Amino acid sequence: MKISIFTTMTNPEERMDPWKEAIKCYESYADEVVIVGDDFKEEFTWSDIGKMFTNGLQKATGDWVIWMDIDNIFHEKDFEKLTKSIYKNKSAPSIAFPKMQIFTPDRFAIKSVICRAFNKKDFPSITLNGGGDLCLPTLNGKLIKPGDVPKTKVPIWNYDTVFRTKELIGHDRARYARAWKREFGDIGDRGGETPEEAFIAWYEMIKKRYKRHIHYLKIEDHPKFIIEKLLNLNENQFGYDGFGMKDYIKGDLIDYLFGYKDKIIYL
Questions:
Q1: Residue 24 exposed, middle or buried by CB count within 10 Å (0-12, 13-18, 19+)
Q2: What pLDDT is stored for residue 122 in this prediction?
Q3: How far apart are CA 267 and CA 248, in angstroms?
């Protein structure tokens, strides 16, 4: 069985993505690594994202294809378990993964369970164009939901924004707000079209999510591919201390109850 991983990246050095570390991880596991998105526009329409993802899925030639964002990494200790999960569920259209959300390297939360591995050999018509954000997998026009497919306890380690500065986050969130408005006619919960407005909205959202980061980590607990980059974080990068939130954001009893329940269920 051939296993492919596809990912997307555009100007990864400028965007401060951990792309070298992610690609090293993918190449250590998969039979094929496909990269798309190098020509993705600065000002885009929201549906362009799903089209880019679908392009990556279509270019991959594996029997099974895993979709990874360029800030997503597998732990090397989970490689064998991942392969076993795919073989065990090889007749399913998809497999769902828990996502470990990292803001600062010393803790995490289970953000969600997402469909990220696809049986392209038996279900070649799977497309990434569904859901409210037009990016979720569909089969023959019907949304593939995590609750309807097998789940693995192999987590995806998500380092979204860990290595970025305030300026870069504001810039990026603003362009996504403008894209959302072009597609849907409003800003939604994205704050505004300027970097300043977009950053404030993002930071308020992140503060609420950080309360759920109640599971603690040591640097050596992280995948080996990313450890050196985490050790070299500086105070201008979000992952250093969450732009200060690490010092004052604490979870309450409800956060701990939900956090431990999710860990027991999904990991």
A1: middle
A2: 98
A3: 27
Contact 123, 93 (CB under 8 A): yes
* Distance separating alpha carbons of residues 175 and 67, to the nearest angstrom: 23
Take residue 35 and report the two structure tokens written for it: 């990269």
The Cβ of residue 171 has, within 10 Å, a number of other Cβ atoms equal to 19
CA of residue 29 relative to chain centroid, distance: 18
> Using CA atoms, how far apart are residues 65 and 205, in angstroms rounded to an integer?
32
Which of these, 232, 231, 234, 233, lies nearest to 218 by C-alpha position? 231
Pick from 122, 134, 112, 137: nearest CA to 57:
137
Label each residue of 16-39 as H, E or C. CCCHHHHHHHHHHHCCEEEEECCC
Pairing of the two strands 156-158 and 94-101? parallel
Tokens standing for 51? Answer: 């089209």
Answer for the pair 198, 189: CB distance below 8 angstroms, yes or no: no
Q: How far apart are CA 157 and CA 101, in angstroms?
A: 7
Residue 182 burial class via C-beta count within 10 angstroms: exposed 0-12, middle 13-18, buried 19 and up:
middle
Express each pLDDT in 116-137 by its tens digit.
999 999 999 999 999 999 999 9
Question: What is the pLDDT at residue 159?
Answer: 98
CA distance 266 to 243: 29
- Please name the residues in contact with 265: beta carbons below 8 A apart, sequence gap of 6 or more: none
CA distance 98 to 225: 19
For 163-194, write each residue's pLDDT tens digit: 999 999 999 999 999 999 999 999 999 999 99
Give the C-alpha separation, 177 to 163, whole Å. Answer: 21
Is residue 75 a contact partner of residue 89, using CB atoms and an 8 Å limit? no
